[in-house]
Amino acid sequence: MCVLFACSSVWGTKKCQTNNYCVTLHDGTITAEAGLCAVILCSFTSEVTPKRIIWYKCEQSKCDNVFYSNTKNDEVQSGFKGRVSLLEPDVSQKNCSIIISDLKESDSGLYQLRVEGTKSFTYTVSRASLSVTGRTNKCTISLSCHLYQPVLKPTVVIPPLTEGQESTLTCTAPGLCSGSQPKITWTWRKGGKDSQLTGNITAAKTENLTAVTQRHSSTLTFNLSAEHHGTNITCQVSFGGNTTREETVTLNVKCELEVIIAFLIGVLLSSIICCLGMKCYRYTLFCQLFLKDELWIMFSEVF
């Protein structure tokens, strides 16, 4: 899951190797969870128009290519091919920010920028630090300064449930990262045993929010009966990198009689309030309320 935090203040520190070659990267370590994604924010200045942006992953004294903006893709490490992309494809904008999808714990390390044009320059003055873990429940991705770290669980939305009616539950996967589409599955149990949702229909949906963010969801539609009351329904979301998250909800199904009784109580209370609210010495009050099949309630009081 990518969590973006923003405000008007500067999101990183600008460091210069020479007066005309500077790079701005996020301060501190970017942390994220395996199977999800990370954004490395970056901008640079140079005295020439850039034509290519290259990123290296460095370990000790060795740096390996993980991204080329347009050419030499055969030189990129095989484990990074197809997983790294620029947030701004137009390199002339001098925005070197990248997004890494389908994270692996082995992606942890230091990332270094190189820009090529009529002249080439490697920005060794500053490196971005990325930490990927499969044990934490939180993912942090920096876009500015206010940090928010929600627990990575799917969100299950349940409408009011009434016996005899069709109902649709919606499960939304955590995270807005592009990359491999997660697998969303539904399971249901009652009393420790598998329950049946006869005639259930599931449908998956992917919504593109931006060029690099997507929202994945699934719906479960079925006809409700009284037997479904108390059933535990679980939505499980499986990402790449063997990362799985799930959320379980319990169905609270109301029978038609309960709905009718609740409606009658509401009508009665409304009628009492209506009558007590009238103040006069002598009056005849008719509170006419429509109640299923033209049922009228009349209150009359004379004093």
TrEMBL record:
It is a single-pass membrane protein. GO terms for cellular component: plasma membrane. One of its GO terms (molecular function) is sialic acid binding. It comes from Kryptolebias marmoratus. The keyword Ligase does not apply. Its main location: membrane. SMART domains: IG. GO terms for biological process: cell adhesion. Pfam families: Ig_2, V-set. Keywords: Cell adhesion, Lectin, Membrane, Transmembrane, Transmembrane helix. Residues 154-252 form the Ig-like domain. It is found in: Membrane. This is Ig-like domain-containing protein. It comes from the Eukaryota. The chain crosses the membrane at residues 259-278. Belongs to the immunoglobulin superfamily. SIGLEC (sialic acid binding Ig-like lectin) family.
